[in-house]
Each structure stands twice: as structure tokens, then as C-alpha cells.
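User: C-alpha cells in, sequence out, please.
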């Protein structure tokens, strides 16, 4: 009789607990024994090497084993077992972290790639497993004419992976972060307890899990708000001679809510200088085109390009760049990204100062510095740290080096730290998907008044301190 997955898990968990190191470190013990199924607990070189890499290609921490749970119950059993063994555990969604945040040195990596089911779609919500990508979520909801109000620029990220950090996109001024659009979460705590949390049930855990860097629980399922999907998006790229004129127009269109999506960037122009661009999208249905006279009234831009795509194609536009980067190899180079938020009151000054210290080589020919204003009043996730102002500017160094140069990546990680220190001193905040080392004290400073919320949730729900060691929080 072929044992089912659950039998194997039970067998694996209980027997591996007694075999402990022999099971992990020793040679394969043959098909007839009670080692866990390969799918559930793989300690082969290939699985462990894959889990020791991420998109950042800077940090490598090799786990003892990789687990691919298919249910929340399996996540719970592995966590209980890992706690008994004193092993650290990290969830892995799509592996797009840039600094080893989904790794667990000599511990267990929980690959959530089998937890991808879309369970239910209702007019105002979707219930989805946390390992699903936003691409999968969007495809399924668009088929019903619905969409999540906030999408990241890249849809190949997992739901759990972005909810663990926040999840920002072009419509965040209107709808906050993805973590603000969560109605309910199914989680497994570090103790291996399965719970459903929401604003009305285990509310403290709900607050500690969203943007909580996976320090007290792993998300297995999320209920996310939906809106009616617009049919089309008309997208504009406006060009400016300098950062000041870009900022002025960005602030104006933000204040007047002219666009449904607003972003912008400073990009290397290939000759040692920069291009300053405002990127904005307007939603529309049928043949009712947006009134461009109103959209652009009083702006000082030189209009560069316009695209007009279905909502789904527009949301997936990053896929073109992904394809290019995969084909030229740059997807696999080190990516020492730095993501921050500047206070609106001094954003122009700080961004100008930082950009003056950078050159095109610091970003790579296809890299960019994201820079745009957003309102903060829709961002209500307690652990998402933003400067305490009505307007803040995401300011991100999206470095895409043309070559894989380890020494250069290390230099850029050090540069990230110096820039972060400058930004922090000016009242800015880190978006914790950045490539730089942070000490426990740095994190306590980062979370500031919210630190006790996270520390207490960790103490209560992951008393063994096993979850997500890659951030070095505790
Ligand atoms: C090309 C690219 C584009 C990006 N664009 C955006 C963007 O537009 N907006 C934005 O906000 N971010 C963006 N990011 C950053 C991205 O949101 C984060 O790096 C995110 O954490 C990656 O998700 P992932 O599924 O790849 O997670 P992983 O790298 O697998 O994990 C990241 C972290 O989340 C934790 N985690 C994963 N799954 C779970 C879970 N189910 N429960 C609890 N914790 C979990 C991991 O343990 C780890 O600490 C981008 C990254 C890349 C590489």
C-alpha cells in the first residue's frame, strides 16, 4: 500500500525526531525506512542549494532540509517538530527577497509552493493560499471582473511574501498597502498553533503578522478585499529636466487625485546623467477615454509615451522586463536593493543629495531609482513604518548590475547602509525588503513605538524563537 502524504509526514516527523541528526546528516537510508517523503522533507544537495539562494544573490545560508507542506496542518506539524529540535524555520514564497530573509542556516525552509489554491471568490473578497502568486490571484479574479485594489509592480511575488513586508504598488495612495487590504488571515504560530485572525479575532496577532516580517507566525491563507476591475489602463510617461520639476508636478497631480496610479523614477540616461520621469495610469471602461486636457492641465512635462492596455496586461507589464533580464542574465546577478520612504517635507533635498553621490553604474543600465509621493492616510498596517507625515516618497535604489561582480555587490551593500543612515537621520524609514545588515537594535529603532507589539507577539507566539532568522530581529 502506498502511504498517503499525511502518513509520511507523521512518520517523518516522529521518526526524524528520534533519528535527529542521523536522519539529516547521514547518508540516505533507503526506500523502505521511515524517512520523510522527499516532497515533505528534502535534504538533498539540490533542494538545499536552491533554498540557500534568493533574488538578491548576496547572502547564502544553507538549510538542513527543505519542506514542501501542502496544508496548514502540515505547516503546524513541521513547526512543532522544529521547535522540539531547536531548529530555525523560514517560510519561502517565491524567493524574491534580496538579503537572505527567507533562509534558515542549518534549519528548515518551508517552501510554500504547494499552497497555491484559490479557494473562493466573492464580489468583495478572494480567499487564497499564501503561496499563490499575485499573478495567479489576478488571473482568477479578473475572470470574474474583479481585482485586488493594490498590486505590486511585479506579480511574480507570493501573497504571503508581500503581506509579510507590506506590499506597495501604484495605487497605494488610494488604497494603502496590500497588508491594508487583508480581511482575515489563517496562520500557524511559531508554537505550531493554527489560528484565524482578523480585526475582530486575535486582533493583536493580525496586527503583528501583517508587515511583521514573519517573526511570530507563518501565513497559510489570506482573505483579501477585491474591487471591480476597470477594463483598461491608459498609462503615461512624462519627462522632466530635473528632480525639482518632477517633484512639483508629482505633488500637483497627487493633490488633485488626477490619476488612479502614480509613480515615478530617476533612471540612468546612458551618458552619465539621469532622466526624470513621472509614470501615471488612468483607469477607464468602454470607449470613454480619459480627458487628457484635464489630466495634464498646467503640468510642465514633455510627454514621452502613452500605452493603452487591458487592466490585466497593464498589471503584468513588468513581465517584459523580467523576460529581458532573464535572457541577458541580469536577473541572476546580485541585486543590492535599498528601499526606503522619505518624509515629504525634505524628500527633494534628501533624494537630491543621495542621487548626487550616485552614478549610473551604481544602478546598472536597466536599474532605476523609484521616487514618487504618496498619501499615508490609507496605510493603517501598524507594523508598516512610514515617516509621520501626510505625504511620503518611496525612494528605492533598484540596482540591476550588468555583470555579476561580488565585490561590487558588497560595496553597494555598504553604500546602502551609509545611505540608510543618512535617510534615517532625516526622518526616513526603511522598507524592509532591502539588502543591508540590520542589528536587533536597528530593528528596535526602526519599529520605534511599535516594537513592543512585535516583541510581545514574538514572546507569546514563538517562544522558542524559531521563526525567520534571516532578518536578525531578535
Ligand atoms: C522584481 C521584484 C519586484 C518587486 N516589486 C515590488 C513591489 O512592487 N512592491 C513591493 O512591495 N515589493 C516589491 N518587491 C519586494 C517583494 O515584495 C518582497 O521581496 C517580498 O517579500 C518577496 O515575496 P516572495 O514571495 O518572493 O517572498 P520570499 O523571498 O520567498 O520571502 C520574503 C520574506 O517573506 C517571508 N514569507 C514568505 N512567505 C510567507 C508566508 N506565507 N508567511 C509569512 N512569511 C512569509 C519569508 O520568510 C521572507 O522573510 C519586489 C521584488 C522583486 C524581486
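Assistant: Sequence out:
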Amino acid at each position: 500500500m502506498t502511504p498517503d502524504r499525511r502518513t509520511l509526514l507523521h512518520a517523518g516527523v516522529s521518526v526524524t525526531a528520534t533519528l535527529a541528526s542521523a536522519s539529516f546528516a547521514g547518508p540516505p537510508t533507503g526506500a523502505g525506512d521511515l524517512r520523510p517523503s522527499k516532497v515533505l522533507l528534502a535534504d538533498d544537495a539540490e533542494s538545499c542549494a536552491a533554498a540557500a539562494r534568493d533574488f538578491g544573490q548576496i547572502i547564502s545560508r544553507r538549510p538542513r532540509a527543505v519542506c514542501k507542506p501542502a496544508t496548514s496542518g502540515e505547516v503546524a506539524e513541521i513547526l512543532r517538530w522544529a521547535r522540539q529540535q531547536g531548529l530555525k524555520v523560514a517560510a519561502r514564497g517565491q524567493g524574491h527577497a534580496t538579503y537572505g530573509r527567507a533562509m534558515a542556516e542549518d534549519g528548515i525552509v518551508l517552501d510554500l509552493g504547494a499552497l497555491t489554491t484559490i479557494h473562493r471568490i466573492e464580489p468583495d473578497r478572494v480567499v487564497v493560499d499564501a503561496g499563490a502568486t499575485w499573478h495567479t490571484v489576478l488571473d482568477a479574479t479578473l475572470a470574474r471582473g474583479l481585482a485586488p485594489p493594490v498590486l505590486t509592480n511585479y506579480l511574480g511575488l507570493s501573497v504571503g511574501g508581500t503581506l509579510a513586508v507590506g506590499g506597495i504598488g501604484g495605487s497605494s495612495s488610494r488604497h494603502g498597502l496590500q497588508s491594508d487590504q487583508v480581511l482575515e488571515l489563517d496562520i500557524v504560530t511559531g508554537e505550531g498553533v493554527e489560528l484565524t485572525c482578523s480585526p475582530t479575532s486575535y486582533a493583536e496577532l493580525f496586527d503583528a503578522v501583517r508587515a511583521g516580517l514573519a517573526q511570530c507566525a507563518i501565513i497559510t491563507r489570506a482573505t483579501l478585499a477585491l474591487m471591480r476591475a476597470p477594463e483598461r489602463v491608459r498609462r503615461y510617461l512624462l519627462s522632466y529636466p530635473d528632480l525639482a520639476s518632477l517633484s512639483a508636478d508629482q505633488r500637483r497631480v497627487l493633490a488633485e487625485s488626477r490619476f488612479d496610479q502614480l509613480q515615478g523614477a530617476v533612471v540612468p540616461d546612458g551618458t552619465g546623467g539621469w532622466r526624470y520621469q513621472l509614470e501615471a495610469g488612468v483607469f477607464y471602461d468602454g470607449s470613454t477615454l480619459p480627458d487628457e486636457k484635464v489630466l495634464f492641465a498646467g503640468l510642465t512635462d514633455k510627454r514621452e509615451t502613452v500605452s493603452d492596455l487591458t487592466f490585466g496586461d497593464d498589471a503584468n507589464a513588468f513581465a517584459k522586463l523580467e523576460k529581458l533580464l532573464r535572457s541577458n542574465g541580469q536577473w541572476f546577478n546580485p541585486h543590492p536593493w535599498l528601499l526606503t520612504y522619505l518624509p515629504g517635507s525634505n524628500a527633494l533635498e534628501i533624494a537630491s543629495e543621495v542621487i548626487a553621490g550616485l552614478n549610473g553604474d551604481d544602478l546598472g543600465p536597466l536599474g532605476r531609482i523609484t521616487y514618487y509621493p504618496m498619501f499615508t492616510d490609507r496605510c493603517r498596517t501598524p507594523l508598516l513604518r512610514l515617516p509621520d507625515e501626510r505625504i511620503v516618497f518611496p525612494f528605492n535604489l533598484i540596482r540591476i548590475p550588468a555583470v555579476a561582480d561580488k565585490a561590487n555587490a558588497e560595496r553597494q551593500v555598504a553604500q546602502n547602509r551609509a545611505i540608510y543612515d543618512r535617510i534615517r537621520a532625516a526622518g526616513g524609514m526603511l522598507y524592509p525588503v532591502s539588502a543591508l545588515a540590520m542589528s536587533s537594535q536597528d530593528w528596535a529603532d526602526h519599529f520605534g513605538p511599535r516594537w513592543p507589539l512585535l516583541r510581545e507577539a514574538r514572546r507569546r507566539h514563538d517562544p522558542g524563537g524559531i521563526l525567520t532568522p534571516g532578518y536578525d530581529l531578535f
